[in-house]
Specification:
46% helix, 5-stranded antiparallel sheet, alpha+beta, 225 residues, 7 strands
């Protein structure tokens, strides 16, 4: 099967976007480069934790997340379904969500060391649009490559087909009608199948449009015969 992008990178970007877009309330800390998140839910199958090659997989769709904001000694946040449940300090004292005065607000290396939390399973988040744009870019590359397999009358028609397929896939992704589960199925295969379906749907719609136009033209011609 042809590879139109790096499937490992695509899966990582999709994973990051799934995490980020579901908790928009923390976006200011992503933009400031001070948000680390730990996914605690594991992928399950038939009610049991799914194991493949001897290891479980983090589930980016799990509703509960642990977050760390890299200010002071670290502010910790627990979210559930995108809403903040609790905010506390490293000494387990409740507190309020800290303000970000400027994106350049520095992290005090003497009081907060990202290495400590990264060793604990936290990963630094990028802004939501960064991972989204990377995913969209790879989707378009795949649509462009797959459209080359279809015998279109012109390069312009092929580009239109790729654009239509990409638009359909992106809409499904944004509406959460297209999701992936780590470990259960390769992201590249999932997207390839979806893109082919979208292309066939677009071609079928175009063929119906042509048939209807021809039928209408024949009817008009018969009326004026």
């Amino acid at each position: 099967m042809a590879k139109y992008c790096d499937s490992v990178v695509l899966e990582r970007n999709w994973f990051e976007w799934t995490i980020a877009e579901s908790v928009p309330v923390l976006e200011p800390y992503r933009e400031a480069g001070k948000l680390w998140t730990k996914v605690i839910g594991k992928v399950t199958k038939d009610g049991e934790i799914f194991i493949k090659h001897g290891q479980p997989f983090n589930d980016p769709k799990h509703p509960i997340r642990l977050h760390c904001i890299g200010l002071d000694r670290g502010i910790f946040v627990i979210t559930n379904n995108g809403e903040i449940s609790i905010v506390y300090t490293d000494s387990i004292r409740l507190c309020k969500l800290p303000r970000i005065s400027t994106p350049e607000q520095s992290i005090n290396a003497q009081t907060f060391d990202p290495t400590d939390i990264e060793n604990g399973g936290y990963r630094k988040e990028r802004v939501t649009m960064a991972s989204w744009n990377d995913v969209v870019c790879d989707i378009y590359k795949m649509c462009k490559g797959i459209s080359m397999r279809f015998n279109m009358p012109s390069e312009e028609a092929r580009d239109e087909l790729a654009n239509e397929a990409a638009l359909q896939v992106i809409r499904k992704l944004a509406a959460h009608k297209l999701t992936y589960t780590p470990g259960l199925a390769p992201v590249f295969n999932l997207l390839t199948t979806t893109i082919y379906r979208c292309i066939y749907s677009a071609l079928s719609r175009d063929q119906r449009r042509v048939r209807n136009a021809r039928a209408y033209a024949e009817e008009i011609k018969a009326r004026h015969a």
